[in-house]
Amino acid sequence: MAKYGKKSQAKVKKAMEERKAGTLKSGRSGKKVTSRKQAIAIGLSEARRAGGKVPSRKGRSSRSRSRKS
């Protein structure tokens, strides 16, 4: 069974193309994204919001708990 759906593949591809063109911006700060990993992360988060088939983030909750304490 595939982990990622067609919608998520399309979103990541679009984010990578924007990164190559130099038009991909970070959501919070609005800075230009140059990192490949960051572009993939942006594409996946867009796919999650659009309802695509994307696995949930793994170490998200445990990290935030350990930082607070």
Number of helices: 3
Main pleated sheet = none
The count of strands amounts to 0
Low-confidence stretches: none
Mean pLDDT: 81
Topology (SSEs and partners):
Layout: H1 6-21, H2 36-50, H3 60-68
Helix pairs in contact: 1-2
Write structural notes for this entry.
There is one protein chain. With 69 residues, the protein is an all-alpha fold. It has one domain (6-54). The chain is 58% helix and 0% strand. The chain is built from three helices and no strands. It has helices at 6-21, 36-50, 60-68. Helix 1 (6-21) crosses helix 2 (36-50). The longest helix is centred in the N-terminal third of the chain and has 16 residues, at 6-21. The radius of gyration is 14 Å and the shape is globular. The N and C termini lie far apart (38 Å).
List keywords for this structure.
globular, 58% helix, mainly alpha, 69 residues
Entry summary:
This protein has helices spanning about 5-20, 35-50, 60-69. α1 packs across α2.
